[in-house]
Amino acid sequence: MLRRETARSYQEFSDEEEEIPDVCQDDGLDDLEPDGSKDMVSEADDEMDDAVVSNPLMWFDKACLKNIFSMVLLLVYLMLTTVAAFLAYQTITDFMKKLNHPVMSVSYKEVGSFEPAGISLYLKKAQLLSCKHYHHDHIPPLVSPGKPEKGDCVTQEVIYTSPYSNHTMRRALVVQGPTDVRNRELIFLQLSQNETEEDFSAISYMLFAKFNDLNISRDKATFMQDCERNYSMWTFSGGFRTWVKMSLVKTYGKAEESVEFRQESSVVKYNDKRNESERTNQLFFVVFEWRDPFIQEVRDAANFAKLSIKWMIKIRRRHLKRREKEMKGVS
């Protein structure tokens, strides 16, 4: 009896185990998850969208971004405006500078001869021994250096007060300069000076435009003072031959004309062959010559352009008049 009940109870237990569903199988989960989880995710997304739309903080963030972007654009606009204003100011400033300092045009006028320039020598203790004219860059050998010789130059002596010091008297020996530039005319001067206690010995000179202006001047002292204010001073040293080649520059401004001398100089040493006793007097040699037959003319470019336009208009009118006469002759 006991064996039958035991077997029966075991069989019932086995049958009960077989009837229990296997909830851990994958197929069951796969069948349950899609419908439930998808519905839950979609509901959550809808809730989040509704929250974003209904939340006023999101609109506040957007407004802040717009304001920041507007401020950046305003700053960029102000920077561009500042740069444009600076460029306009710079352009106006450059234009005003050009008006005050206009562009100059340079031209060269060829001449057959120059008016004789004035060569003003400030000798102090020196003495003029000779002054002679030569041509074609030829200077003959010295015959008696250190001794006075007869010359052929035109000179004038003028004594006047220095324009920069009322207590300084100037003694100027003014020599008439060369004129015949085509034949290479030059002036050769020989001077001497007793040795002094100075470390260096030199003679100063000044060039001015026209020697004839000094001749016709009633007040020669005032004339020389004006020349000293307007022209530069130069020097040449003892024991050398200084060869000065002059050129003339005329500047035509708005109201007046100015004349300037430019020069190129070359220096060679003098070989003194005198006796030792005669060398107490130091010798100076200087040559003045025109460099070339051209006068440099500097004009305001604006005035030069106006003159060129007027000249072209005149030529055009003459051409039209001639053409009109020819047409009348043909008719």
TrEMBL record:
Any GO MF annotation of the entry: chloride channel activity
Location relative to the cell: Cell membrane
Top-rank taxon: Eukaryota
The reaction(s) this protein catalyses: chloride(in) = chloride(out)
Region spans: Disordered: 1-42
Keyword Thylakoid recorded: no
Transmembrane segments: 68-89
Family: Belongs to the proton-activated chloride channel family.
PANTHER family: PROTON-ACTIVATED CHLORIDE CHANNEL (PTHR16087:SF0), TRANSMEMBRANE PROTEIN 206 (PTHR16087)
Name of the protein described by the UniProt record: Proton-activated chloride channel
Organism annotation: Albula glossodonta (roundjaw bonefish)
